[in-house]
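Q: Give me the 3D complex with zinc ion.
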Amino acid sequence: MPQRSTIDPREKQLNVPKRHKVAIFREQGGPITIEDADVVHDLPRGQALVRVIYSGVCHTDLHANLGDWPVPNKLPLIGGHEGAGVVVKLGEGADQHVKIGDRVGIKWINSSCGDCVYCRKSHEPNCVKAECSGFSVDGSFQQYAVADAKSLTPIPAALSLETAAPLLCAGVTVYKACRQANFTPGDTVVIVGSGGGLGHLATQYASYMGARVIGIDTGADKKALSAKCGAEVFIDFNQSKDLIADIKAATPDGLGPQAAIVAASGAKAYEQALEYLRPRGTLVPVGLPPNATIKADVFWTVFKSLSIVASYVGNRQEAIEALDIAARGKINVVSRTLGLTDLPEVYKQMHNGQIAGRIVLDIDR
Ligand SMILES: [Zn+2]
Ligand SMILES: [Zn+2]
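A: Here is the predicted complex, encoded as C-alpha cells.
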C-alpha cells in the first residue's frame, strides 16, 4: 500500500506573522474557542518555532480538556500532540538539531531533560522532567507552536504531512507496543480494536514485524479494515458466543496467542486477554479507559508465567522508526481530514464514541 508523496505548498512559506489562530480552552471541561493570539517570537534556548499545517486528534486531547486523568494539565491550554509542519524559526542552540524549512513532527513528549536516570537509558517518555505537548505545554492545535528542537521528529520526504500526523502519537504508540509484545515472526498476536484508530495501525505494524494477526472488533466495516490491514483472522466480539475459546481455536496449536495488544477502551478486554493468552504470553495494554483496573488472577498469571507490559509512547528513535516504516509504504493510515474550527464538534463526537478511525485537522481551516 504505497503512500503518495505530496509536498504541501504551505511548507515553503517560512515567514513568521505576528498573529495566528489557536484552539484554546480556559478551564477543565470548558469550551474550545478558536482565537487570534500573538505568535511567540522570543524563543527560549534550544526551542524551535514550528509552523503546524496538520495535526491529528487523539483521545488524550479530549482527556486533557475534560481533566479526567489523575495528572493535572496546564491551563489555559492549547491541546494537540500529533503536529506536522515545518521549522520556521530557531532559538539559540536549536540549530544543533534542526534547520529552517525542516519537515518535523511535534509528538506527545515535547521535551525530556536528557540527564536523568531514565533519559540516560533512552526511556525519555519516563523522564522525571518530561514536558508533554498539548498537556503540560501548549501543543499543535495552533498555527505556530514552540517545541524543543532536539525532540522534534524528522518527517521523511516520502510521507505527506497529513499522513505523518496520526503516526506521531497513534503510530509511535502502537509500534512501541508491538516491540514490547515479546513475539517473534510466525507467532500469533491478537489486536483488540483492530478496526479502530490505534488498532488498524497496530495490525499493520504487527503484521510487518512478522506476526499472524487475529483482529478483534465488531461490524462489517471494522472487519473489512482489519483484513485490509493484514489480520489473517477476524473475530466479531458481538457475534462470538465464547470469545476466549474462539481465539484459542484460531491459533495453529490451539494454545492461544503469544501476545495481546489491547487498543480498545473497556476493562473487560484486559481480563479476557489474560485468559486466552498462551503460557509465557504477554498482555500489552495500550488503551486507557478512565478509572479502569486490570484484574489478574494470581494463580493463573503465575502458573502460565504471563507478563503484563504496559506500553507508553516511544522514544525519539522509535518515532523515527515508526515513520520510516510508513515512508516505505508499509503502513496505510486511515484518517479523515477536517479543519481546526471543527475541533469542538470532533470532541463532542469523540465523547459520544462516534469517531471511526483517526481525525486529522488542517490547522489553517
Ligand atoms: Zn495521543
Ligand atoms: Zn530526563
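A quick observation: The chain has two domains: 9-169+314-362, 181-308.
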